[in-house]
Design brief:
The chain is α+β, with helices and mostly antiparallel strands. The chain has 3 helices and 14 strands.
């Protein structure tokens, strides 16, 4: 049985929250004579500690890889698949796949393909609910454009939600990313959008649950 791994982005937050809730529980036991209340506070404190550990967990996955495959960059549910006009990287129509991550999902972002990062941009913005149709354009987000080794274009976008207040991205323009390698982390509820060429074969549908590093979202047209 493998040990639980905690993402580096969560270590400080977990320690700070653990100390805070321990202090709260201790204060109640010292100054409150009602044992029922003290036990309830202790249970709530333990619950928050377990939640934080679970949120920042890094699962062991048997990664799926392939030159023409687009692998899910995160855990969650597919909330939208549609053709859109993309003006940041493609500057043309493309397919957008949107994945919503609840607070109970793993929030690591993995690279969906291997290739060179040819575009990177951070956008400050609002904090609409992550599955809102305009969240991809209005919310705080990072956009990472990649040219694969076979010449296919792809952009994936980390999007903050109503609870997410910090996006961490490790990809930088000019650097290489490897398929299923960690590309960042989004703290709390959020969304990931993928933008693909129109001739890409999409292998998932709206409502599907997907898992980062494991679920094949799409297949590039090998003739391009």
């Amino acid at each position: 049985m493998s040990r639980i791994r905690i993402h580096k982005e969560g270590i400080r937050i977990i320690w700070v929250n653990a100390l805070l809730w321990i202090a709260v529980a201790v204060l109640f036991f010292v100054f409150c004579s009602n044992m029922t209340v003290n036990i309830i506070v202790a249970v709530i404190s333990l619950g928050f500690a377990i939640f934080m550990l679970r949120f920042f967990r890094v699962p062991h996955r048997d990664s799926v890889r392939g030159e023409n495959l687009v692998i899910a960059p995160g855990d969650g549910h597919v909330v939208d698949i549609r053709e859109v006009e993309e003006d940041e990287f493609f500057h043309s129509k493309c397919i957008r796949i949107s994945i919503f991550l609840s607070v109970f999902d793993v929030h690591v972002t993995w690279s969906p393909v291997s290739g060179k990062v040819t575009y990177y941009n951070y956008h400050p913005g609002r904090y609409l609910i992550a599955f809102h149709p305009k969240a991809s354009e209005k919310n705080e987000r990072t956009s990472i454009g990649v040219m694969t080794d076979d010449g296919h274009m792809l952009m994936f976008r980390q999007i903050a939600g109503i609870l997410a207040r910090r996006i961490v991205c490790y990809a930088r323009e000019g650097e290489r990313v490897e398929q299923t390698a960690q590309a960042g982390f989004i703290k709390f509820g959020s969304r990931i959008d993928l933008f693909l060429p129109l001739d890409t074969e999409v292998l998932v549908k709206k409502g599907d649950e997907v898992f980062g590093q494991e679920t094949v979202l799409a297949h590039f047209n090998p003739n391009n």
